[in-house]
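Attaching the record inline, Q. Sequence:
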Amino acid sequence: MAYISSEMQATLAKVLRSLASILLGYIVIVVCTIAGFKPLGGIVHLQAPLRIQATGALVAIISGLMGGIVAAFVAGKHPVRHAAGVLVFLFIDTAVVISRGSADPLWFDLFGSATLMLATVCGGVLYHLVTRRRSESPTQS
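Structure, as predicted:
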């Protein structure tokens, strides 16, 4: 068995943590969207009532925020970059949805995906702002 230096182990641990943060952020999004869209009847279509569409948008925003926050938290460093890393999986999801075709116009599916992607990156930004404020605030004695 080859000897792995402690420096190499530390580097490997950082890489694995980064990859895990991105994957966990995506998993959170998947779980939240499934749980959130189920009561709405599954996939929300353009012909759905406005309240269902608005609730679907809220589910996407909350799911994205949570996924971005989880990715940022698990990563520990560079929270926005790791939240943005989740977009790799979301781009793949979007490509699959588009390739399968939809009863809805292309723009509707793309705006739905963009909403989720923007919310995911915003989750990383939110995590960064909250943790930065905590580290900058003076401690009280």
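The chain has one domain: 18-133. The two ends are 52 Å apart (CA to CA).

More tomorrow.
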